[in-house]
Amino acid sequence: MKTDELRSAEDLERAVLKLGFLPFFKNRIEGFSVEEMTPPELWFAEGTDGPWEWKGPVVRNWNCIYGKLFGGRAGYVSLEWFPDLANCRRANYGFDMTPLDGEGRNREKEIYDAVVAHESLLSKEIKSLCGFRKTKKPHSASVGGWMSEKLSPQTGESFETAMTRLQMATMLIAADFEYQLDKCGQPYGWGIARYTTPEILFGAKSVDCGNRTPQESAERIVAHIRRLFPHAAESLIRKLVE
């Protein structure tokens, strides 16, 4: 499929709504990423707004959902397709399945409960409320096999690992990105993510796909992406989706 070139936040939002799913970074399905659709001069170019700066405006329009949704890496899903993604992802996730740390604490459940209690939290607020401390050698989030990652029973999950798993499971999403301001009142830096749940931001309908089973939702998504990218192997599509 020939994809459109992205030169603005508006272009990016249109692409997500058109495709339904759009990973941020290049992956094994050729042409299926924000990175490949963005001109080189706009891809993380100093002094120029690009896809990283467009995240906030796109998310704030409430037509797309953003988070670590594809193999533990960032990407977008339209509101039309998110219920099916949540249906098949949540079928393989449960807090009774998540690992406990050395103190018997379920870190993912603590994070989720804290976000729900406050309706939304910045990542730094989650770290503070849930008692995450910096470690010299944090566990890296698994890119593949997000449900079967092996963790140290002494240290449990790092903050990054727990947040990645919660986003991959569609339990948490990025609601916005907030920037620090310089002395002139201008935003700077990478932006701090504010997290919430799909249900809080969009209501219960955001994860409701009717009577479809998780398997039916998965097959529906795979068929949709295969229509868009017929050159892609089904195994690669399933790995990205499931």
Overview of the structural elements:
It is a single chain. With 242 residues, the chain is of the alpha+beta class. It has a domain at 9-83 and 175-196 and 214-241. The protein is built from ten helices and six strands, in the order H-E-H-H-E-E-H-H-E-H-H-E-E-H-H-H. The chain has helices at residues 9-19, 34-37, 51-60, 82-90, 107-118, 123-129, 159-168, 198-202, 214-228, 234-241; strands at residues 21-23, 64-70, 73-78, 121-122, 173-181, 187-196. It has a three-stranded antiparallel beta sheet with strand order 1-3-2. A three-stranded antiparallel beta sheet has the order 4-6-5. A hairpin with a 5-residue loop joins strand 5 (173-181) and strand 6 (187-196). The model is unreliable at 137-144 and 148-155 (pLDDT under 50).
Q: What layout of secondary structure does this protein have?
A:
Layout: H1 9-19, E1 21-23, H2 34-37, H3 51-60, E2 64-70, E3 73-78, H4 82-90, H5 107-118, E4 121-122, H6 123-129, H7 159-168, E5 173-181, E6 187-196, H8 198-202, H9 214-228, H10 234-241
Antiparallel strand pairs: 1-3, 2-3, 4-6, 5-6
Helix pairs in contact: 1-3, 4-9, 5-7, 9-10
Poorly predicted regions: 137-144, 148-155
Strand coverage percent: 15-25%
Largest sheet, strands/sense/barrel: 3 strands, antiparallel
Which secondary-structure class do the elements indicate?
alpha+beta
Q: Could you state the order of secondary-structure elements as H and E? A: HEHHEEHHEHHEEHHH
Q: Give the integer mean of the pLDDT values.
A: 89
The number of helices is 10
Can you tell me the overall shape? Answer: globular
The percentage helix is 25-40%
Roughly how many Å is the radius of gyration? 18 Å
Write out the strand line-up for the largest beta sheet, numbering strands in chain order.
Answer: 1-3-2
Kindly state the number of beta strands: 6
Distance between the termini: 22 Å
